[in-house]
Amino acid sequence: MATGGSHTVGLKSDGTLWAWGDNAQGQLGDGTTTSRTSPVQIGTDNNWASISSGGVHTVGIKAEGTLWSWGWNIYGQLGDGTTTSRNSPVQIGTDNNWVSISAGFDHTFGLKSDGTLRAWGDNTYGQLGDGTTTNQLIPVPTSVTLNVWLSIAANYFQSFA
């Protein structure tokens, strides 16, 4: 289960993804911008492994390690190289070695199986950890390039590893 600013996403034991709540920016991922008062299944895939919800966006990892995102994208927090909001899941890159993700308010943090960190989205306060305050539209390495990270957490304007 992951709760965002005004939406919730749940992962069932059968690998299906469900969402409900505000959907003004497509953050539920059901292909619409219609808010839902009860859970609706997101697509037909049953291979979702983990999810995280940010302020108005959602990110997920499928069982094969691919990264997907949807919702509001004004700062590039989806990581697809654009600032275009999406109301259905879109795959981010082609890598299949994502093991953990954490969505902050307008940014996202990801951990790969080799122990490296990637971050993208709003970087106004340096929350991406890349040594800049420049927003990033795709996952970029943090400035600490050690391959020893085990867990991550993103919050409003901060990130932790």
Q: Would you give an account of this structure?
A:
The protein has no helices and 14 strands. The strands form four sheets. It has a four-stranded antiparallel β-sheet with strand order 1-2-3-4, with no helix packed on it. It is globular, with a radius of gyration of 14 Å. The model has no long low-confidence stretch (mean pLDDT 94).
Topology:
Elements: E1 2-3, E2 7-11, E3 17-21, E4 36-41, E5 48-53, E6 57-62, E7 67-71, E8 86-91, E9 98-103, E10 107-112, E11 117-121, E12 136-141, E13 153-154, E14 159-160
Antiparallel strand pairs: 1-2, 2-3, 3-4, 5-6, 6-7, 7-8, 9-10, 10-11, 11-12, 13-14
How many strands, which pairing sense, and closed or not: the largest β-sheet? 4 strands, antiparallel
Class from secondary-structure proportions? mainly beta
Strand content: 35-45%
Numbering strands along the chain, what is their spatial order in the largest sheet? 1-2-3-4
DSSP strand count: 14
Q: How would you spell out the order of helices and strands?
A: EEEEEEEEEEEEEE
Helix content: under 10%
* Euclidean distance between termini CA atoms: 21 Å
Low-confidence stretches: none
Q: With helices defined by DSSP (H or I, 4 residues minimum), what is the helix count?
A: 0
Computed over alpha carbons, the radius of gyration is 14 Å
Average pLDDT works out at: 94
- Shape verdict: globular
